[in-house]
Amino acid sequence: MYRLTLKFNYLYTIMMLLLLTIAFYNIFYRLEDFPISSWDEARHGVSAYEMLKSRNFIVSTYRDEIDYWNLKPPLSFWANMVGYKIAGFNALGLRLFSAIFAMLTIILVAFFVNIKHGKVASLLSTLTLATSTQFLINHSARTGDADSLFVFLFTISLLSLLLCEQNLKWLYASGLAFSLAFLSKSWHAGNIAIIIGLYLLFTGTYKRLNHRNWILLFICMVFPILAWGGIRYQYDGIEFFKNMVAYDLLQRSATTIEGHIGGKLYYFEILWRFFNYWFVILYGLVLVYLNKEFSFNLFKSTRSSYKIGICLWIIVPLILFTLAKTKIRWYILPIYPPLSIIIGVLASKLLLNGKLATRVTLLATILFVSLHYEGEIQAYLHNPTPKLQLNLIKKTQNLKGLKGYSLFLHLPSSPPKWAQNMVLTSELYTDSHVEDGDINDFLKKDKALLLLQRGQGTKQLIKSNQFIIIASNKWGYIVRKRK
């Protein structure tokens, strides 16, 4: 028996290392080669860059003005800053810690499920999460957004909550992780607070808490937020907080902003789009659970409080974000870890206790589904869509004497408007200060470059003004004036 256990442990270690290696490859491969997204990722990247350059680590800015559009506390910006310091001012630095936190989330789930449910469940949960395409490639692991850090902290908080039945100290860890989640993605962390409250109520855990427990929990959940708020208040009073409440909470919840529309089934449609085959497996497992022959074996050792916690982890975000009028697909990223845990646990019980035909069918289905999603991930990794305007800006990175120049924009078909990914690329790769204005403003400015998009009359414009072309590609040109 000892030898069998030793061999099984060895096999588990080998298979887990293989899964984590695949996950590492999927998350980190060509991380810098993918163009920067023009919305949240670029906005976060600009704020982190400018905060680092100004040495002000509290007030986020965009184009050197206080940012009252991206109303997030600074924790995720700090992660971007550390990434810049480690990997440089580039897309890799921007995304480095998103990738690290996603990898840590997978490892955390693998470790937790191994402790609670065994090695087979751990392998299956890891496989599920490591092939969840939205978690990996949509506004999370491979981008410089706040979501990967937020999902990591959300996972820490809820796993700690599930452990508080064994030791109340885990409840304080859950509360502290909530406060850090709030400092990374603001009101989204309200899901965690509601889950904690409902869990304490539904499981009766609140009856075990004395005054000291409540005070410590309150300190863990609120003090870090109040400390940040007090420091931030010193800069612009209540202006930032007023916008946080009015726009980022109330308006985003009560109305549709920025065109982010969706019906009551929006998030179920998103889950079906990114997770459909895993849902088919989950549905099949639930059907087996409903069969009296297996139901006793499946959940014999599972405490009701644990099941309540897992269900709240999934249901609360789905309900709250469904009720909110503004619908954005990555809002439900935090529910992928618990879905993976449930699939891993149910599938492992069936693989260990089911009939031979059932085991073979389930195992074959899991392998097919994981290979299908891995194929989608590989297709994404090996086919990045280039953004030629960003590549053009990057071309000036190694040209001598141009660091810190002002950069103007000219578009032949429309008034010039800087896309956020162009702003970030200009700042990261050339330390340029993007400027609003037309060609006349460019001509009046010393140490200035002009970004010209190809179009009718572009070549004539260059020729008539005797501009010097310093870089070009199929998108356009970067020129400077003759001295």
Automatic annotation (TrEMBL):
Q: What is its main location?
A: membrane
Q: What's the short name of a Pfam family annotated to this entry?
A: PMT_2
* Source organism superkingdom: Bacteria
Question: Which molecular function term from Gene Ontology is one that the record holds?
Answer: glycosyltransferase activity
Provide the species name: Neobacillus pocheonensis
Enumerate the subcellular locations listed in this protein's record, separating them with semicolons: Cell membrane
Which PANTHER family did the record assign? MANNOSYLTRANSFERASE YKCB-RELATED, UNDECAPRENYL PHOSPHATE-ALPHA-4-AMINO-4-DEOXY-L-ARABINOSE ARABINOSYL TRANSFERASE
- What is the protein's name according to its record? Glycosyltransferase family 39 protein
Report TM segments.
12-29, 94-114, 149-168, 180-202, 214-235, 274-292, 304-324, 330-352
InterPro entries (alphabetical): LipidA_mod_glycosyltrf_83 (IPR050297), RgtA/B/C-like (IPR038731)
Q: Where in this chain does the record put each Glycosyltransferase RgtA/B/C/D-like domain?
A: 72-228
Sorted alphabetically, the keyword list is: Cell membrane, Glycosyltransferase, Membrane, Transferase, Transmembrane, Transmembrane helix
Q: Enzyme group, top EC level?
A: transferase
Q: How is the protein disposed in the membrane?
A: Multi-pass membrane protein
What are its E.C. numbers? Answer: 2.4.-.-
